[in-house]
Design brief:
The structure is a single chain. With 214 residues, the protein is of the alpha/beta class. 44% of the residues lie in helices and 11% in strands. The protein contains nine helices and six strands; from the N terminus they run E-H-H-H-H-H-E-H-E-H-E-H-E-H-E. A six-stranded parallel sheet has the order 3-2-1-4-5-6, with helices on both faces. Helix 3 packs across helix 4. The longest helix has 19 residues. It is globular. The termini are close together. The relative contact order is 0.19.
Length: 214
C-alpha cells in the first residue's frame, strides 16, 4: 500500500456510511411518483450512477431543468433525514491524517451532485483533506464508466496505476478497475461476501487499513 502515491475516495458509503438514509429518501420519492423500488434494485442499479442517469431511467427523456428539479427534491429530502446523524466512517480522519503525513495525494471522486458534496464535506470539516474533488456535475458518464476516477487521477497528476480507489458500490468498483486503479472494497452498502466476487481486498472501515500501510 505504501508504494501508491494517490488515494481516491468515493463519498457515499466510503467517506460516510449513509446508505440507509439515501435509501429512505429514495423510497419516499418512489412512493410519491409511483415507480417500483426496493433495496435489491437500489443496491444493484442506483449506487454509483449520476442523478441525470437515474432520473432519466425513471422518467424517460426529461430536460435538464426537470432533472434538476427532481434531484433538488430528492436530495433535500435526503439531507433533512441524514443531517442529525452525520459522521465520518470509522477511522477515516486518522487515515487521512496518516496519508497527509506521508505526503500522499488525496482525491474525492463521486457521482453525487455538488449539493451533497458540499453538505457532506463542509458539515464534517473534511474539504481541506482533498487535493482534488470530482463530483457528478463534472462527469458525463456515471459508473461503471471510469471517467470519474480518470479525472481524479488526472487532477492528482498521477497515472491511474499509482492510485488506490476506495469503493462501496459494485458499479463503482467496476469503474475503478476500468480506470486502471487498484480498488479496495468498503463493506457498507454491500456485505463482504457480495463484494468478494468483484474485488480481492475488502475493509469494513478505515480502522482496518492502517496496518496495511506499515
Amino acid at each position: 500500500m505504501s508504494s501508491f502515491n494517490g488515494f481516491i475516495f468515493d463519498m457515499d458509503g466510503v467517506v460516510v456510511d449513509n446508505h440507509k438514509f439515501h435509501f429512505q429518501a429514495w423510497m419516499e420519492f418512489a412512493k410519491k411518483y409511483d415507480f417500483p423500488l426496493n433495496e435489491e434494485i437500489y443496491r444493484k442499479d442506483f449506487n454509483g450512477k449520476t442523478n441525470a442517469d437515474l432520473f432519466r431511467s425513471i422518467f424517460g427523456d426529461i430536460s435538464e431543468s426537470e432533472v434538476f428539479a427532481y434531484a433538488l427534491e430528492k436530495e433535500t429530502r435526503y439531507q433533512s433525514i441524514y443531517r442529525n446523524f452525520m459522521k465520518p466512517l470509522d477511522g477515516l480522519i486518522p487515515f487521512l491524517e496518516s496519508l497527509r503525513s506521508r505526503k500522499k495525494k488525496i482525491a474525492l471522486g463521486t457521482s453525487a451532485p455538488t449539493t451533497n458534496v458540499v453538505f457532506t464535506l463542509d458539515n464534517l470539516g473534511l474539504r481541506n483533506y482533498f487535493d482534488c474533488i470530482i463530483d457528478g456535475s463534472q462527469v458525463k458518464h456515471g459508473k461503471p464508466n471510469p471517467e470519474v476516477y480518470l479525472l481524479c487521477a488526472k487532477g492528482l497528476n498521477l497515472p491511474p496505476n499509482e492510485c488506490v480507489v476506495f469503493e462501496d458500490a459494485i458499479l463503482g468498483i467496476q469503474a475503478g478497475i476500468n480506470a486502471g486503479c487498484t480498488v479496495i472494497g468498503v463493506a457498507t452498502s454491500h456485505k463482504r461476501e457480495e463484494l468478494s466476487d468483484h474485488v480481492p481486498t475488502i475493509i469494513g472501515n478505515f480502522l482496518e487499513i492502517e496496518s496495511r500501510l506499515q
